[in-house]
Amino acid sequence: MLVTAHPAASHERSLFEEYARTRSTVVRADLVERFLPLARRLAGRYGYSDEPFDDLVQVASLGLIKAIDRFDPAKGTRFSSFAVPTILGELKRHFRDRGWALHVPRTIQDRTLRITRETERLSTTLGRAPTAAELGEALGLTVEEVIEAEAAASAYRTDSLDAPADEDGAPLVDLLGADDEQFALVDERTTLAVSWRGLPRAQRQVLRLRFVEDLTQREIGERIGYSQMHVSRLLRDAIATLQRS
Questions:
Q1: CA 109 to chain centre
Q2: How many Cβ atoms sit within 10 Å of the Cβ of residue 130?
């Protein structure tokens, strides 16, 4: 029994053979139009991401054009079998190189995408969000690897400092940080440093041990060989001198 090729398949093969021979942009445009639904379906696999679908289709279409340019009909391979990994590779590169706001190793990026898809699948099956252990078992990962990838997912998007951060529309940058109270102490510290240098060595020593090392008067006395009463008098005189400065 003689089996004839489907007319559409024969026509597509003829187009690929013609394009391989002539590299005609008109023929390539025809091929792109014919296989654009394939590119759209593959882009739809990443519909769970925050990327606009039109952007994903554009990236997939670029992968489709690359596949058409590289396809050799003489090898007898079906074009779809050749095109699918090429288009998916282009989509993965898009997420690796452009989708992440911060630098994340590619292995973790890939793992994060796998975990995202598996989370959606398991959530539907279990009726709840899966645990890290359940995700790890499903994907052949350790719990630590799952947690690491989930933490890395926060690097996929960053918020603009100009974005509204409250109901009044105040930008985020206006709500970050606070006045550093230490600036108000700069002049006082400068004055104190001058007065400190004017104290006798023994007074400076007991002040440091009391207020920097947080020793008690008894511990200071044991450290420097003075009685507790003498240490108390040194502290009192030093503080009085600094207060008068």
A1: 9
A2: 20
Task: Compute the distance between CA of residue 107 and CA of residue 189 in angstroms, rounded to an integer.
Answer: 51
Please name the residues in contact with 164: beta carbons below 8 A apart, sequence gap of 6 or more: 170, 171, 172
Contacts (Cβ under 8 Å, ≥6 apart) of 122? 130, 134, 135, 138
* Assigned CATH for 7-99: 1.20.120.1810
State both tokens at 83: 């095109």
Judge contact between 39 and 57, C-beta under 8 A: yes
Phi, psi of 9 (to 5 degrees): -65, -40
HSE-CB of 168 using CA atoms within 13 angstroms: 5
How far apart (Å, rounded) are the C-alpha atoms in residues 20 and 74? 9
Is the domain defined by 182-244 classed in CATH 1.10.10.10?
A: yes
Report the chain's C-alpha Rg in angstroms: 36
183-232 pLDDT, tens per residue?
Answer: 454 554 555 555 667 788 888 888 888 877 778 888 888 888 888 888 88
